[in-house]
Description:
Elements: E1 3-7, H1 11-22, E2 28-30, E3 33-36, H2 43-49, E4 53-64, H3 70-78, E5 86-95, H4 98-103, H5 107-117, E6 121-124, H6 134-139, E7 147-154, E8 157-166, H7 169-177, H8 191-202, E9 212-215, H9 222-229, E10 234-239, H10 242-257, H11 263-266, E11 269-273, E12 283-284, H12 286-291, E13 303-304, E14 309-312, H13 327-351, E15 357-367, E16 370-373, H14 377-382, E17 385-387, E18 401-403, E19 410-419
Parallel strand pairs: 5-6, 5-7, 9-10, 9-14, 10-11, 12-13, 14-15
Antiparallel strand pairs: 1-3, 1-4, 2-3, 4-8, 7-8, 15-16, 15-19, 17-19, 18-19
Helix pairs in contact: 1-8, 3-5, 8-9
Amino acid sequence: MNHFLIFGTHPLLSLAEAKAVIGGQKPEIAGEMAMFDVDQWDGGALNDRLGGTIKLGEVIAKIPLKELTAERLADEIEARPRGKNKIEFGLTIYGGSSAARQKTKNLAIGLKRVLQERGQSVRWVTGEKGDLTPAAVAKAHLIDEGYDFCVALTDQQAIIGLTTNVQSADAWSLRDYGRPFRDLKTGMLPPKLARMMVNLGVESRIKNQELSILDPFCGGGTVLMEAALMGYQSLVGSDMDARQVEGCNKNLDWLVSKKLLTQECRTTIKTFVSRAENLDSHVVDLSSSRRRGSMSGGMDSCLRRNDNVTIVTEGYLGKPLIGHESIEFLKKQKREIEELWGKAFEVFSHLQTKGGRIVCVWPIFVSGRDTLAVDAKEQAQKFGYTVIDPLAGWHEKAVTLTYARPDQHVKRNIVVLEKI
C-alpha cells in the first residue's frame, strides 16, 4: 500500500467510484480511509476527477499498532522538513476497534509535546470532532507548509499517511449554488453525485473522451456540466420541459463565463427538447453520416446510433413528499415510475450496443414508518439490460448504493445497468 483516499459522506458510493476509476486489487479499508497498492498514481488528476473523495495522499509507513507513538510521528515530520520556523500539523484517526482508538486518544497532543521538547515551535490544527476537514487543511496550508496525518488502524497495524491533495469545497459549492438556473421544485442533482455517476458510467476509461454521454432527463444540466469539466466532448442532453433545457444551456454558458469551460468545448454540447420515448427521432446512423461527410444543419443536434453511448441520468423521482403519505400513494408512484422506465429502456436499447452502460437514479420513498423502493429491473431485462454490482470483487456482498441526507423523504438509489 502506497497511496490512500479519504471518502466523504457516502463511503460505499465513493468506493464504487474509486473502483471504476482506479481499478486493480481491492484496497484495504479502515473507516472512510482506503489504502491502495498501485504503480501509477496521479494525485492531482484523481483529486480533480473523483467526486466522492475529499482527501488523498501517500502512505509513508505501515507499522505495528504498538509502535504508533508521538515520537514516531515526530520522527516522520523531522524527516520531511518544510522550511518553516513553526511546525503545523493535523491528525485524524480512521477505523480500528474502540480499544485501539482509545490508545490513540492523546496521540496528537503527545506529538505536540514531543516536538516542543525537541525545541520546535508547534501548532496543532484540529476540528470540532477531532478530524480535519479538507477546507481546514487547505486554509492552514498543511499540504505544502505543514503536515496532515491520516492514520488507519487495521487489526494490530497502523498505516500512516500524509495528505497531498484535498477536495475544493469552494469549487463544488460554486457549481451547486452559484449556477444561474436552479429549480427547487423539480429537485436538483448534486454536482458531486453527478460526477460519481459519470465515473461509474465510463468506468476505468479515463483517457477515452470519445464516447458519447447522453442525459435524456437533463433538467438543469448537472450531468452535462460535470462531464464537460472532466473533458468529455461528445455530450447530449434532452428533456421534455423546454424551460429545463433553457436552464441547462444557461448553466453551461455560465461555466464558460466563469472560465471553467472553453467556448470551443461548449459548442460541442448538444441539447434539445424531447420526451425520452421520442429520442429515436433524433438519431442518425453514424455510418451513413460519415459517408455524407460531417453532420451539418439540424443533423449536428442528433444522436449517432453507432456511437459508444453511455447514459447517465437521474430521471423522474416522483411527486415531492412531506412525510405522511399513505402506502397506497407510495405504491402508485412506484408503479408509475417503473412504467416510465420501461418505456425509456425500450428506446435506450435502440441507442446502445452490447456493453453499453446506464447509470441512473431510482427513488426510495420514506413516509412515516413506510419505505418503498422503485425497482425497474424487470422492465430493464425485457430490453436486454441487467443490473450490475459496481463493487463486485471489492465488497463481500451486493449493496445498495444510496445517496441521501438524514431528513430527506426521497432517497436516491444509484443503479448501474449494462446491455447484455
